[in-house]
Specification:
The protein is α+β, with helices and mostly antiparallel strands and about 280 residues long. The chain has helices at about 5-10, 20-30, 35-45, 50-80, 80-95, 100-115, 125-135, 155-160, 165-180, 220-230, 235-240, 245-260, 265-280; strands spanning about 140, 165, 185, 195-200, 205-210, 215-220. The chain is built from 13 helices and 6 strands. The longest helix has 30 residues, at about 50-80.
Length: about 280
């Protein structure tokens, strides 16, 4: 379909007949993302607030459909790439973000650590180096003053504000570590997401744990078991061994649902719930 054909359809969006509007809306939504530039141009050229609202709603529906498609595709074929999963979630709130900026910032932080990395450093020394670069020099910290803010779950905002929740900080920390071949992975601990440093000679065995929300504090298995005991939970493998990236993205979405519930944004809460249901039907 050409731009002129898109524009001809868009020109009918202000029709007062709801049935006609819904038919046109459906036709535009089925066109997919390629119609968005024409919709945005019409929004800019219009002085009709009613028409602009309709255009905004259609653009959002198209973008939301694309996010659902991207998320399902990621689960099926690309779930080894955690950053891509995080960016798909990011598109829900920031659909027009230049994602290359996120990749560039993570690459910059990785270089900052790599510059000081020495081959024969011990695992503890490597963690201390990561902590120094990320927390002291870059200024990353837990957002204790606005813990439930939705922005804590979007990686671009975490990089911009240098604040986040336990899982977003842990994701960033592990992404940089893994890009340096440092075996640090996520632990889906209830109530608090942490990381594990795995033994290089035995990737199935945890060497120690890292509490990123507490500026990279090193923890032992006894600390994790004690925490689980307080929650009346067993020290099962699902809580003490690394989880996969799908479990991480599910948890990010659950955090977003809780955040939107906290600020009484029912519409966004329901939409993020739909995203979660796509990848976690149970």
């Amino acid at each position: 379909m050409t731009n002129s054909e898109y524009n001809a359809i868009i020109s009918l969006l202000d029709d007062p007949d709801k049935d006609i509007f819904h038919e046109i809306e459906h036709k535009l939504i089925t066109c997919g993302p390629e119609v968005i530039p024409s919709l945005e141009q019409s929004w800019e050229e219009s002085f009709d607030a009613f028409l602009q609202t309709r255009i905004e709603q259609i653009i959002h529906k198209i973008q939301f459909n694309q996010i659902k498609s991207d998320l399902q595709l990621w689960v099926m074929s690309n779930s080894r790439d955690l950053l891509e999963g995080l960016l798909i979630v990011n598109r829900y709130q920031y659909p027009n973000l230049n994602e290359e900026e996120v990749y560039a910032k993570i690459a910059e932080l990785r270089r900052d650590v790599w510059y000081h990395l020495i081959y024969d450093m011990s695992p503890v020394e490597k963690v201390k180096l990561l902590n120094n670069i990320l927390f002291r020099e870059f200024g990353l910290s837990g957002n204790t003053s606005d813990y439930h803010a939705p922005q804590n779950s979007f990686i671009n905002k975490v990089l911009e504000t240098k604040k986040g929740n336990p899982i977003s900080l842990a994701c960033l920390y592990s992404l940089i570590a893994q890009r340096l071949d440092i075996p640090i992975y996520g632990i889906n601990l209830p109530k608090h997401f942490v990381l594990a440093y795995m033994k290089e000679e035995n990737p199935e065995e945890v060497l120690f744990y890292i509490n990123v929300f507490n500026r990279g504090q090193i923890m032992r298995e006894d600390d994790i078991v004690s925490f689980l005991r307080q929650l009346n939970l067993p020290a099962s493998e699902e809580f003490i061994k690394p989880c996969d990236n799908l479990a991480i993205i599910k948890r990010v979405l659950r955090n977003l649902i809780a955040a939107y519930t906290h600020i009484d944004n029912l519409e966004k809460r329901q939409e993020v719930q739909l995203l979660l249901d796509l990848i976690d039907p149970a």
